[in-house]
Amino acid sequence: MAPVILVAGPPCAGKNYYVDQHRRPGDVVLDQDDIGPQAFNEAVATLEREWPIHRTWVIRCCGGHTARTRFAQRIRASDVVLLTPPEDVLLTRARQRPQPHRHAKAVRYWLAQEARDPAPEPQPRPMTRW
């Protein structure tokens, strides 16, 4: 049973770059932008039914903690990596892409989703004495 890693974050966050830097030969990458919506949905449905043979990276925006958590559970993700560069960095990157207004709008939409449903703050671990 190979791990499934969800890499989430807003458009222009560097999700593909992150995966490219961390993947190993033989890893599978599922990115809707690369394989198209139909193939992506079919691959997700397969992950729901079967454990993958190879380590699998799933790239998805998933704005909002609840939606991200549900999707991670759906694909049985062993890890979730959330990339959240500052808004000014995201918008600068959006301006460098084809159709910059569309990308900037998508960035703002993701940030609004995240603001409505933020991830809970990590709870500090109790200290133990040795």
What does this structure look like?
With 130 residues, the chain is an alpha/beta fold. 47% of the residues lie in helices and 14% in strands. It is built from 6 helices and 4 strands; from the N terminus they run βαβααβαβαα. The protein has helices spanning 15-22, 32-35, 37-49, 65-74, 87-95, 100-116; strands at residues 4-8, 28-31, 56-60, 79-82. It has a 4-stranded parallel β-sheet. The longest helix has 17 residues, at 100-116. The chain is globular, with a radius of gyration of 16 Å. It starts with a strand and ends in a 14-residue tail after the last helix.
What is the overall shape? Answer: globular
CA distance, first residue to last residue = 36 Å
Across the major sheet, the strand order is 2-3-1-4
> On the 0-100 scale, what is the average pLDDT?
94
Helix content: 40-55%
Order of helices and strands: EHEHHEHEHH
**DSSP E strands, number:** 4
Which stretches are low in confidence, meaning pLDDT under 50 for 5 or more residues running?
none
Q: What profile does the largest beta sheet have?
A: 4 strands, parallel
The tally of helices reads 6
Rg of Cα set: 16 Å
Strand content: 5-15%
Helix/strand-derived class?
A: alpha/beta
